[in-house]
Amino acid sequence: MTDRLTIDRMSVRFGGLVAVRELSMRVKPGEIRGLIGPNGAGKTTAINAITGAVPIASGRIELDGQPISDLPAHEISRRGVGRTFQHVEPFADLSVLENVLVGVGRHAHVAFALAVLGTPFARRQEREAERTALAIMDTFELLPYRDTRAADLPFGILKRMDLARALAARPTLLLLDEPTSGMSQSEADASIAAVRALAQEEGVTLLVIEHNMRVMMALADTVTVMQYGVVIAEGAPAGIQQDRRVIDAYLGEETHADH
Fold this sequence. Notes:
The protein is of the alpha/beta class. Helices cover 42% and strands 23% of the residues. The protein has helices spanning 43-50, 73-78, 96-105, 112-117, 120-139, 155-168, 185-202, 213-219, 237-242, 244-258; strands spanning 5-14, 17-27, 32-36, 58-63, 66-67, 81-83, 173-177, 205-209, 222-227, 230-235. α3 (96-105) runs parallel beside α6 (155-168). The longest helix is centred in the middle third of the chain and has 20 residues, at 120-139. It is globular.
């Protein structure tokens, strides 16, 4: 079986700083892969490189066996790579439903002329898009906010909306950057359960950055740990929790924070 995502000795540099050094990773179709590490480990930079937001200095990235390293970001997105951001970027003046419909629209194939003319086919497509959006919103308990402007929502609900919008686009690979930050524990638990259920139902492969270790241990099939731009450990969540290198990396971060 071809890996969904293959990263082969990828490095990312910013001037003289090596943010990611020869990262290699293979993620299977349908897998939920966790990516953890202390602040500054290179996690978000790795996701930015996969999506084409930053160029790689060396190495190779493949999606379903096809190279994407040199493609522009919009082409990588078109091939089925979606993402959420640590800091949500909503369409502030649109309602929650309209924001989620943006995600559905990325997967729709209605000709512009048909949509403008309001043909019966276009109207059917619009109704189907709304049904899809509402179903995903229901999964994330967003229906009470259907007509609320994104600008008027608290951060935790915005994060749930961001997850719903990303999944509405039906990506084959979805990269989640701190998906539960700003949520209460109950919101985080419910959102992660919804993400896992939808990912399994749709066959979506997930690569997730998450500082909440309780969430990560409940979500991920395999966890990759980075520190100073390199991988220091990889394995099942239970083993990672006991890995001395991982424990030392996080204890070092906490000690540094205390000072």
